[in-house]
Automatic annotation (TrEMBL):
Protein name (Swiss-Prot/TrEMBL): CCZ1/INTU/HSP4 first Longin domain-containing protein
GO cellular component, one term: lysosomal membrane
PANTHER family in the cross-refs: BLOC-3 COMPLEX MEMBER HPS4, HERMANSKY-PUDLAK SYNDROME 4 PROTEIN LIGHT-EAR PROTEIN-RELATED
GO terms (BP aspect): protein targeting
GO molecular-function term, one example from the UniProt record: small GTPase binding
């Protein structure tokens, strides 16, 4: 799937640190250890290999320093790089300092990774399914590209940055629908042991008993459902 036109200095990649263990020359292993790169453009990927290597090298330095924790945001001359670590895998998002703040970089990365985990499971689970047959690259190309496209190309807004939930607007006199939705979920919880649930309409949330973060991500998945691969997504 081809990605949309991207902003300058914006790139995202998933890195497998386990593949670097025991390597005599990290540069030889680096391209293989980058399991996914966005934008989905081979020329840009090759141009950014040195940047990726520098980022990974800094993280490795902190990994071997017993007295310092790895910072969540790395600062370069013109960019921020936000990163998150999940066992053997790490996600990195680079954004331009001229257009974004470091807080935005962290929020965008969190949205990408949380949406992925909600849709496909934990990184350990995904690796157990696709890693053994060397299908991680193919899987991530299908699964991650629509999510990264959506998050990174969204129009910047306060509601998006603060995970604001867009509830379905109701006409005057239709508020009874909310009460009926609540009663429906309450019945399912008492009758079948449902833990939490959500009722939506027109790609928006009508009523939810999930926490606000989960409800926000499900709302985003409403927008993404036509782009995500149905055969491998938990929620479609």
């Amino acid at each position: 799937m081809a990605s949309k036109a991207t902003k300058p200095n914006l790139f995202f990649f998933i890195f497998d640190f386990y593949l670097m263990k025991g390597a005599q020359d990290d540069n030889d292993i680096l391209p293989e250890a980058i399991l996914y790169f966005y934008p989905r453009d081979e020329q840009i990927r090759q141009q950014k290999l040195l940047d990726c290597g520098e980022i990974v090298g800094i993280v490795q330095y902190f990994q071997h320093d017993l007295f310092q924790s790895i910072p969540k945001t790395l600062y370069f001359q013109n960019t921020f790089v936000a990163h998150e670590h999940y066992g053997r895998h790490s996600g990195f998002l680079s954004l331009s300092q001229d257009h974004y703040t470091s807080e935005e970089a962290q929020i965008y990365l969190k949205h990408i990774l949380d949406l992925f985990n909600m849709s496909y499971g934990t990184w350990d689970y995904v690796h157990s399914i696709y890693g053994k047959d060397n299908k991680m690259n193919e899987f991530l190309n299908q699964a991650l590209t629509p999510i990264v496209d959506y998050v990174c190309n969204q129009k910047r807004s306060i509601s998006h940055l603060f995970s604001t939930i867009e509830y379905t607007p109701l006409k005057n006199g239709n508020q009874r629908v909310l009460l009926e939705s609540k009663h429906c979920l309450d019945y399912l919880k008492s009758k079948y042991g449902l833990k939490d649930g959500l009722i939506g309409c027109d790609n928006k949330v009508l009523y939810s008993t999930w926490d606000s973060d989960t409800t926000f991500y499900i709302q985003l998945l409403f927008q993404l459902r036509k782009q995500l691969p149905v055969s491998i997504c938990f929620l479609l």
